[in-house]
């Protein structure tokens, strides 16, 4: 108990100084009371003495309150040395000035002398505390400003690097990958389907498409990191037919269906298409052949809910627990894409939830709808061959 009390006062040393001033005043008053101080009444009742006592109590209370109620303890923790030096310097300077002044005042009683010196010490120390805190706060603000400036420079440098990487991926790496994919497709067309050359061309095409998918994911991720996800009015329903066509190319045995309105304007940009594609392609690639994948859009004035539903075997609990976490490896097979999907959706103030059992999996994306201040509608891709039903919903099926 004694150690904890000592530790408390070592951390609250400014309050301890205030308590010390009050203790010194109490001893002085006790000395008057018992008659130790010669030439004094029991307790002097002069106006000058009472003002000095009130000043001492006020300054001591200021020390205690400053220590106990100051919200930023870092001032005392980081700049305790300079603050205490200014307290000592203030008390010593004001005491010295008053001692010189007292030498010109003959006839003072011992009580008046003690009271004056005590008042000078306390007031000078209080002034030193004010100066010390002001100086410490000024230094802290200057350090914070410098740190913010350095951080801003670092962020600007990082933004430049990200912009360069995005451009490099778009114009160099992705274009080169597309060339490889194109030539691999040509080889597949001219070679005998049963030949080894055709098999090799297929492997090259598949892996180049995997690399292209990773690059597209990284480009979208860089867009998020660069803060270029400024929201607008984007018709996400217009982009879904293209997703259906691309999903068919992944597995011709999978039945892909769409159920939703012809137009669903959300408060995002076209970058959200990448997140939706990751969900659709993941559903097609990780379900048995011949299953059905449905993209369902439910649009209201408050929100837009996009559900990607498959009737596969579901997701095992271990995989589901880390479904949207950043993978350490195997970036080309859905892991990084699902991690990116969550980042993109949340960047647009959306949410994603997954429900799964042995009868299938449903991934539901909820996106905000725009208001009048979000600009004009970006139509996305063209609706293609969708047919509008009497209810105003569009249905498209790709087998």
From TrEMBL:
<keyword id="KW-0472">Membrane</keyword>
<feature type="transmembrane region" description="Helical">
    <location>
        <begin position="116"/>
        <end position="133"/>
    </location>
</feature>
<feature type="transmembrane region" description="Helical">
    <location>
        <begin position="46"/>
        <end position="66"/>
    </location>
</feature>
<keyword id="KW-0597">Phosphoprotein</keyword>
<keyword id="KW-0808">Transferase</keyword>
<dbReference type="InterPro" id="IPR004358">
    <property type="entry name" value="Sig_transdc_His_kin-like_C"/>
</dbReference>
<feature type="domain" description="Histidine kinase">
    <location>
        <begin position="168"/>
        <end position="371"/>
    </location>
</feature>
<protein>
    <submittedName>
        <fullName>Sensor histidine kinase</fullName>
    </submittedName>
</protein>
<keyword id="KW-0812">Transmembrane</keyword>
<feature type="compositionally biased region" description="Polar residues">
    <location>
        <begin position="382"/>
        <end position="399"/>
    </location>
</feature>
<dbReference type="InterPro" id="IPR003594">
    <property type="entry name" value="HATPase_dom"/>
</dbReference>
<dbReference type="GO" id="GO:0000155">
    <property type="term" value="F:phosphorelay sensor kinase activity"/>
</dbReference>
<feature type="transmembrane region" description="Helical">
    <location>
        <begin position="12"/>
        <end position="34"/>
    </location>
</feature>
<feature type="region of interest" description="Disordered">
    <location>
        <begin position="359"/>
        <end position="399"/>
    </location>
</feature>
<keyword id="KW-0418">Kinase</keyword>
<dbReference type="Pfam" id="PF02518">
    <property type="entry name" value="HATPase_c"/>
</dbReference>
<dbReference type="InterPro" id="IPR005467">
    <property type="entry name" value="His_kinase_dom"/>
</dbReference>
<dbReference type="InterPro" id="IPR036890">
    <property type="entry name" value="HATPase_C_sf"/>
</dbReference>
<feature type="transmembrane region" description="Helical">
    <location>
        <begin position="87"/>
        <end position="104"/>
    </location>
</feature>
<keyword id="KW-1133">Transmembrane helix</keyword>
């Amino acid at each position: 108990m004694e150690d904890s009390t000592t530790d408390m006062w070592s951390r609250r040393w400014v309050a301890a100084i205030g308590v010390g001033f009050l203790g010194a005043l109490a001893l002085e008053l006790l000395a008057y009371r018992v008659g130790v101080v010669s030439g004094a009444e029991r307790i002097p009742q002069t106006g000058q003495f009472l003002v000095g006592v009130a000043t001492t109590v006020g300054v001591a209370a200021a020390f205690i309150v400053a220590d106990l109620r100051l919200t930023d303890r870092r001032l005392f923790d980081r700049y305790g040395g300079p603050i205490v030096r200014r307290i000592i310097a203030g008390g010593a300077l004001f005491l010295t000035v008053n001692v010189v002044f007292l030498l010109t005042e003959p006839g003072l009683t011992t009580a008046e002398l003690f009271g004056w010196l005590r008042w000078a010490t306390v007031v000078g120390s209080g002034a030193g505390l004010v100066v010390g805190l002001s100086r410490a706060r000024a230094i802290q603000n200057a350090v914070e400003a410098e740190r913010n400036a350095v951080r801003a420079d670092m962020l600007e440098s990082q933004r430049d690097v990200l912009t360069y990487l995005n451009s490099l991926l778009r114009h160099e790496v992705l274009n080169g990958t597309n060339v490889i994919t194109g030539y691999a497709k040509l080889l597949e067309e001219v070679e005998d389907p049963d030949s080894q050359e055709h098999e090799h061309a297929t492997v090259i095409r598949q892996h180049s498409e995997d690399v292209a998918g990773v690059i597209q994911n990284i480009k979208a991720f860089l867009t998020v990191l660069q803060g270029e996800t400024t929201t607008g009015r984007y018709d996400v329903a217009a982009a879904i037919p293209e997703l259906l066509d691309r999903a068919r190319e992944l597995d011709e045995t999978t039945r892909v269906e769409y159920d939703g309105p012809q137009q669903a304007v959300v408060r995002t940009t076209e970058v959200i298409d990448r997140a939706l594609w990751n969900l659709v392609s993941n559903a097609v690639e990780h379900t048995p052949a011949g299953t059905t994948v449905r993209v369902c859009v439910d649009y209201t004035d408050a929100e837009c809910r996009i559900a990607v539903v498959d009737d596969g075997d579901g997701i095992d609990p271990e995989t589901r627990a880390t479904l949207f976490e950043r993978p350490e490896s195997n970036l080309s097979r859905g892991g990084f894409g699902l991690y990116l999907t969550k980042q993109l959706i949340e960047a647009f103030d959306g949410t994603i939830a997954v429900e799964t059992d042995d009868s299938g999996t449903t991934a539901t994306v909820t996106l905000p709808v725009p208001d009048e201040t979000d600009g004009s509608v970006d139509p996305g891709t063209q609706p293609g061959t969708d047919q509008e039903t009497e209810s105003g919903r569009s249905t498209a099926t790709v087998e």
